[in-house]
Design a protein that fits this description.
By secondary structure, the chain is α+β, with helices and mostly antiparallel strands. Helix content is 43%, strand content 12%.
């Protein structure tokens, strides 16, 4: 989904930090109006894995393999690459399939007026792609971390200038950026900002709930953690991830909080004349604006707009809310975070109640996020909060009505909470247990079901 600031092309020099604030203010302008509770946009990432005759994993598919399969799909419309965008494929209903740096496959659905429509579009497309891949000896796999292949075994494969520069920048800071780029997968839930006081309330409440989202939907077991994907994000570059420090300190204005984060974040890359080059850890946007750069001069409005696309807080403002804390989940559980987050943010009674409940924890958010990644809801305090918040959210989801949320998805959510959260468990615990029976059993747990083609 294109952001309100990704389209900025103004080359005016930025000489004052206050100019960043004006650009950020555009993010609080709703991208669209919606006739119901609010629009829902979903983006899910998946691993493509070679399997043998027994269903055991025998390596990740590379970009050329995935491209060859999708190019031959008669119901997909290939989108050729350009100087600024990647090769992609478009489905008949307007969704896009895009490659990620480690040749993960991303589904990016168009905004839908109901959660039921968004989930239906995603399930149809992913099920059909899984079927096509299966016919080629490939499995489409949904988990937050590629636990079948060692970190470092998959290289960054995208040629679009942003990604090589991003890879090199993160490499200067440590190994976690490469892990994030090539070995992780998420489910992003995009929801409307709303009107009146709703944009601020929804943004703040989503941030306050982010440790619970991280803990509840953990599906990326790693050494000492249930959410290895969250750990990779927390460690790769703290200047651009997590919860904005100003919000933790008590700032309620999203523009002021995000402006402070943007200025303090290191510049990830520079656009040179015919190239994109990695930034230097320790060189912040504020320093670039104040002192200039010996090679790249002072930033333009377009440079600052691009810098904003390289910030990855738990909840991003992009003219809508992009909630980033959910691991990729197998098909049978994928509706659950959509039901609970819509119930949390779109039902005003739930929104007010949960914000009041979690507000006292604001100053502890960094600590709670770390505990969420390591222990999930096995942490007693996080479990108690998750049970209370998600119970309220489920009630709120039911109030949104059957035209917005399918009753089957609400029942699926109740089963998930009973199976996992109420027992202090996460999907990561089940995935880890399946490994006792071998990699094939674990892969079967996370593999997308193969059905009848409907796209053709």
């Amino acid at each position: 989904m294109r952001t309100v600031y990704e389209g900025a092309t103004n080359m005016t020099a930025v000489t004052e930090p206050d100019q960043v604030r004006a650009l950020l203010a555009a993010m609080l302008v709703p991208a669209a109006s919606c006739p119901g509770p609010g629009a829902v946009g979903l983006e899910s990432e998946h691993f493509v894995v070679h399997v043998d005759a027994h269903g055991a994993p025998v390596g990740r598919a590379d970009l050329s393999t995935m491209t060859a399969v999708l190019d031959e799909h008669p119901a997909l419309d290939p989108e050729p690459p350009s100087a600024t965008s990647l090769t992609g494929w478009r489905t008949a209903d307007g969704a896009r399939l895009l490659p990620e740096p480690g040749a993960q496959l991303e589904f990016a659905g168009p905004p839908a007026w109901t959660a039921a429509a968004a989930l239906g579009s995603m399930s149809n497309a992913i099920g059909d792609i899984a079927t096509v891949l299966d016919s080629r000896g490939l499995a489409l796999v949904s988990a937050g971390l590629d636990v079948w292949h060692p970190a470092g075994s998959v290289r960054q494969q995208l040629a679009c200038p942003r990604y090589p520069a991003m890879h090199d920048y993160f490499a200067r800071r440590g190994p976690h950026g490469r892990t994030m780029m090539t070995h992780t997968a998420s489910l992003q839930v995009n929801l409307d900002l709303g009107t009146g006081s709703q944009p601020v309330d929804r943004w703040a409440t989503a941030l306050l709930a982010s440790p619970l989202t991280t803990a509840t939907f953990a599906c990326s077991p790693a050494a000492g953690a249930v959410n290895g994907r969250a750990l990779a994000w927390q460690w790769l570059d703290p200047t651009r991830t997590g919860v904005p420090a100003a919000f933790v300190a008590g700032e309620d204005d999203p523009v002021r909080a995000l402006c402070a984060q943007a200025l303090a974040a290191d510049v990830l890359l520079f656009h040179a004349a015919e190239d994109t080059v990695p930034g230097e850890p320790g060189f912040t946007l504020e320093r670039w604006i104040t002192d200039g750069h010996p090679v790249h001069g002072r930033p333009t409005t377009a440079d600052v707009a691009y810098h904003l696309t390289t910030l990855f807080p738990e909840v991003r403002l992009r003219g809508f809310l992009e909630i980033r804390s959910v691991d990729a989940l197998p098909e049978r559980w994928r509706a659950v975070p959509v039901v609970l987050l819509a119930g949390l943010l779109y039902d005003d009674r739930t929104l007010d109640g949960v914000r009041a409940l979690l507000e006292p924890q604001r100053s502890r958010l960094p600590e709670l996020l770390q505990r969420a990644a390591h222990l999930g809801v096995a942490d007693g305090e996080l479990c108690a909060m998750a049970v209370e918040v998600w119970t309220m959210a489920a009630e709120g989801a039911a109030r949104l009505g059957p035209a917005f949320l399918d009753a089957a998805d609400i029942r699926r959510t109740e089963r998930f909470l009973d199976r996992f959260t109420l027992r202090g468990r996460t999907p990561a615990d089940e995935l880890r247990e399946r490994f006792v029976d071998g990699p094939a059993a674990a892969l079967d747990w996370a593999r997308e079901p193969v059905g009848t083609l409907t796209l053709c």
